[in-house]
Amino acid sequence: MIERYTLPRMGYIWSEENKLATWLEVELLVAEAEAEAGIIPRDAAETMRAKAAFDIDRVKKIEERVRHDVAAFVTDVAETIGPEGRYLHFGLTSSDVLDTAGAVLMRDAGKEIESDLSELLAALEEKARAHRDTLIVGRTHGVHAEPTSLGLKFLLWYDETKRNRQRMAAAVERISYGKISGAVGNFAHLDPGIEESVCARLGLKPAPVSSQVVQRDRHAEYMTTLAIIASTCEKIATEIRNLHRTEIGELEEGFTTGQKGSSSMPHKRNPIVSERIAGLARVVRGNALAALENVALWHERDITHSSVERVIIPDSTILVDYVLHKLVDVIRNLVVRPDRMRKNLELTDGYICSQKILLGLIAKGVSREEAYRLVQGAAFRGREEEKDFRSLVESDSDIGQHLSQEEIAECFRLDGYLKNVGHIYERVLGKHR
């Protein structure tokens, strides 16, 4: 038997022991509700609660013969109860147990991921606050654009992660529905009150209407939410990987004592965890597609979804839990190199300030087309002649007709690019955090 705390929490949730224990709890709660309703004898329900147990190996052995997992489980448990075991699974179909227990497991797994997201939020907020005024060049299309704040990168990821936590909470709410409505969902052999009682005791809501199964749009929403979370993690990891590149070198993954970056090249320090995160996100997205394929089933139910869900739901929740833990470690242990950021800011010799010159000319009455022509001409000429942009602007007589040397110098001050960063932080974090 698996002890509860010998596995990580997410691993325990999806263990065979916990799965079957959750099945058993559903079965016993149904029996107790049926006893309350006078459907089965009260002493039978009491005996079930006192004696019911299962043996994983015995269930598997029976399943080899009957080729049905729930039937094998019911047979095994009924044997431990004795004669009263005949009332176990009374009026139920397998999906009553599978889907109701599955909702409990998915809810618990989702709560773990919500907790992981809270940890990531804390790590991102810490870095955002620490680097609010750290200048870094912004890049669009991979090309230097304008200076910005390194902290804004973390703040952007923080805000997206906050939305992901909200999405996960909504997905957990949407999946937290059970069904105890029988073979085709019409309560032919059960009372709706049984379903209401069992779901309430499990912390679920009864599905307002079901077929033999809880409808799989709920599962698809849950799985696509996991895919979005994984994609956000990949987005963050991809930026870290790019800024880790030798030619950029502005951020690096932490490198521990004794770690090796390559079996053959001792100088290497590779962003291996970020790469791992980016790769695993692909698996989670692929699983989400499979969940979408599960929405359409034949009539009241077929089992094309069943085998798929046995793989994709545990795998995706475990993967996202793992990815989030790894990403938190990466963020907390990032090596930040402001010196390299400053060097890269100067790499283009002032060309990243071109828009300030453009707007300065427009403000002096020059048409936008003419101002753009003047600034672009100076920039392109400077690249060809390998001269710094500021000296070209200062010596350009056409630009000099409109902007003084002092006004040009002001255009090349980098701190002005951060003048409204505090306002953005207040929007995201509030004034008093």
Descriptive notes:
This protein has three domains: 9-90, Fumarase C, Chain B, domain 1; 95-128 and 150-343, Fumarase/aspartase (Central domain) (Fumarase C, Chain A, domain 2, Up-down Bundle); 351-411, Ribonucleotide Reductase Protein R1, domain 1 (Orthogonal Bundle). A two-stranded antiparallel ribbon has the order 1-2. The protein has a two-stranded parallel sheet with strand order 3-4. It has a two-stranded antiparallel sheet with strand order 5-6. It has 433 residues and is mostly helical. It is built from 18 helices and six strands.
Q: List the helices and strands in order.
A: HHHHHHEEHEHEHEHHEHHHHHHH
Give the count of structural domains.
Answer: 3
Number of helices: 18
Q: What is the approximate shape?
A: elongated
Q: Briefly note the structural class of the backbone.
A: mainly alpha
Could you name the key traits of this structure?
single chain, 433 residues, mainly alpha, Fumarase C, Chain B, domain 1, Fumarase C, Chain A, domain 2, Ribonucleotide Reductase Protein R1, domain 1, two-stranded antiparallel sheet, 6 strands, disordered N terminus, Fumarate_lyase_N, (S)-2-(5-amino-1-(5-phospho-D-ribosyl)imidazole-4-carboxamido) succinate lyase (fumarate-forming) activity, N6-(1,2-dicarboxyethyl)AMP AMP-lyase (fumarate-forming) activity, Fumarase/histidase_N, purine biosynthesis
